Request: fold
Amino acid sequence: MRVYGIVGYKNAGKTGLMERLVTEIAGRGFSVSTLKHAHHSFDVDQPGKDSHRHRQAGAQQVLLSSRDRWALMTELRGTDEPPLADLLRQLAPVDLVLVEGYKRDAHPKVEAFRASTGNPLIATDDPTIRAVASDTPLTIDQPVFDLDDTRTIADFILSEVGL
Reply:
């Protein structure tokens, strides 16, 4: 599977860019999956639902299935968060996996950058960042794209992964 990342600081536009890229790339006929890192605890389940009750009872994994979708929830129960490579192996094969976050991992990435956040560029010190999608002109070694130019960013990523 081909893997490409979108990284950046909070409020830099990562999620919006991811959403637009999935729409653009899937619209070109490629199969796309996403993997997002969350820096906080989250729950996709609801208290009182049967699946939540199974987890609360101590189940290591709960698979919830319906005619429209299925979801597998795995409780870490105090063990370390799995590395990106292990999580990628859990996904069904697709043409491209877009990863939001995991900025310290070795896969190639585009950095989303908004000047208004006041954060520094990650790209200047990270060789895995191959381009920057920015809301302001930048003078750096990597290519710089307009943050809203989804088509050009998609072209770049697809070219980088050989699709």
